[in-house]
Amino acid sequence: RRHSNTVDHADTTRAQRLRKAFKASVSFMSLLGITWVVGALAISDAALYLQYVFAILNSVQGALIFVFHCVMDPTTRTAVGKFWTQSSSRNSSHQKLANGSRERNSG
User: Fold this and answer.
1) SS3 state at 1
2) Separation CA 13–CA 6 (nearest Å)
3) What's CA 43's distance to the chain center, in Å?
4) 73 torsion bin: left (phi>0), alpha (psi -120 to 50), beta (else)
5) Which of 40, 62, 60 is nearest to 50 (CA)?
6) Each residue of 35-51: pLDDT tens digit?
7) pTM
8) C-alpha to C-alpha distance for 105 and 107, rounded to whole angstroms
9) Do 27 and 61 meet the contact criterion of CB atoms below 8 Å apart?
10) What SS3 state is found at 107?
11) pLDDT 10s digits, 52-70
């Protein structure tokens, strides 16, 4: 009976990972695809405005990928939150040590 629960949990975890990977793939393909469709339409000199749109979309792609796949990802937010918490507690303890040594040296 216990083996069955472990297998069910592993299948659920795998299904969640596949769903997340599929969602990421679709969003990347959409973002990159739209940009390059505009790029293909901007080949002629008559479509100067499309060339500007293509250049702007290409420039913003990295920022959009960062926002959608890093900032909005709960796992990333949790990891960054833990990092900042640990970093701030480390900095405050170093600050206390530095202040203590200054007080001893000045007195």
Assistant:
1) coil
2) 10
3) 32
4) beta
5) 40
6) 888 888 888 877 888 88
7) 0.50
8) 6
9) no
10) coil
11) 988 998 899 888 888 888 8
